Amino acid sequence: PATCTFKGGLESEKQQYIIHGGKTPNNELSDKIYVMSVVCKNNKKVTFRCTEKDLVGDVPEARYGHSIDVVYSRGKSMGVVFGGRSYIPSAQRITEKWNSVADCLPHVFLVDFEFGCSTSYILPELQDGLSFHVSIARNDTIYILGGHSLANNVRPANLYRVRVDLPLGSPAVNCTVLPRGISVSSAILTQTNNDEFVIVGGYQLENQKRMVCNIISFEDNKIEIREM
Question: Which of 18, 33, 44, 66 could covalently link to 83 via disulfide, CB atoms 3.0 to 4.6 Å apart?
Fold first, then answer.
């Protein structure tokens, strides 16, 4: 599934965890979204509470290999779902291709965790469905790097910046294509400090693993990617 951390607001210290989609043990795909939180810590034992969140509106279809992040704007927060793969439509599923998958449409979904509303956005800069990309959320912005396009079997050197503005009215979502992206899929991302992340592993070609790591650093809302 796709996972991320979530605070009720920029001032909140209580942290929750969002879990969306993924494969079930019987090889079906899930469209469910769960909110997990720590209930108590007692004698070194941590107790969690996991609650399923019902969504209305443009509900993201069941998928895996996607990302979910949380953006914060004007004191409000919103979940952002992008990418992934899903089974081909039921009408096209025959015995030989029952488990065949396809890229999800390159729509961006905004999810309001408080009211359980979901809205999809079509951004002209996002033309192809992507899976197993890397996503980084910073304040009101998400950066999408790399990914694998199943339709074309390529790992383009993508770098997109998706900015979400949350005024009193309808949200505003815009996307910018940035230069100097990297070709990577299925990599691990970890944060080393407030303004620095590290990408480890993954694939650059179908049968070629990446043998370099990358440092991603931010300064004055500018992103820099370099090898380490």
Answer: 66
